[in-house]
From TrEMBL:
<dbReference type="InterPro" id="IPR023559">
    <property type="entry name" value="Flagellar_FlhD"/>
</dbReference>
<dbReference type="GO" id="GO:0045893">
    <property type="term" value="P:positive regulation of DNA-templated transcription"/>
</dbReference>
<dbReference type="GO" id="GO:0003677">
    <property type="term" value="F:DNA binding"/>
</dbReference>
<comment type="function">
    <text>Functions in complex with FlhC as a master transcriptional regulator that regulates transcription of several flagellar and non-flagellar operons by binding to their promoter region. Activates expression of class 2 flagellar genes, including fliA, which is a flagellum-specific sigma factor that turns on the class 3 genes. Also regulates genes whose products function in a variety of physiological pathways.</text>
</comment>
<keyword id="KW-0010">Activator</keyword>
<protein>
    <submittedName>
        <fullName>Transcriptional regulator</fullName>
    </submittedName>
</protein>
<dbReference type="GO" id="GO:0044780">
    <property type="term" value="P:bacterial-type flagellum assembly"/>
</dbReference>
<dbReference type="InterPro" id="IPR036194">
    <property type="entry name" value="FlhD_sf"/>
</dbReference>
<keyword id="KW-0238">DNA-binding</keyword>
<keyword id="KW-0805">Transcription regulation</keyword>
<keyword id="KW-0804">Transcription</keyword>
<keyword id="KW-1015">Disulfide bond</keyword>
<keyword id="KW-1005">Bacterial flagellum biogenesis</keyword>
<dbReference type="Pfam" id="PF05247">
    <property type="entry name" value="FlhD"/>
</dbReference>
<keyword id="KW-0963">Cytoplasm</keyword>
């Protein structure tokens, strides 16, 4: 078991569960790509089960970015107006959340 992979998985699961427990289920679904079924399962899982799941030999989540969509954001000029950067960030997050990882 790769310790870095374990930590990455566990951090993701803990953040997801924290959002759910704080009443921010919609934020967890939007930001982390959770389904309603995943939210329901994570709500019931004790920490020991999260640790077992995190020890799997693969990511417990699917990264939700597409390199083509990141290119516009990553090519921002450092002198650009912060409001324009913030608006483009929201636009990018909206695009990323509405597409599957393969698109």
């Amino acid at each position: 078991m790769d310790e870095n992979l374990y930590k990455l998985n566990l951090d993701y699961l803990i953040v997801a569960q924290s959002l759910i427990f704080s009443g921010s289920e919609q934020k967890a679904m939007f930001c982390l790509g959770l389904t309603t079924e995943a939210v329901s399962l994570l709500r019931k899982m004790p920490l020991e089960q999260l640790k077992i799941l995190a020890r799997s030999d693969c990511l417990t989540f699917v990264p939700r970015f597409n390199p083509h969509k990141w290119s516009q954001f990553l090519n921002v000029q450092k002198t650009e107006d912060p409001d324009a950067v913030a608006a483009r960030t929201v636009e990018l997050l909206t695009l990323l959340s509405s597409h599957s990882p393969e698109s």
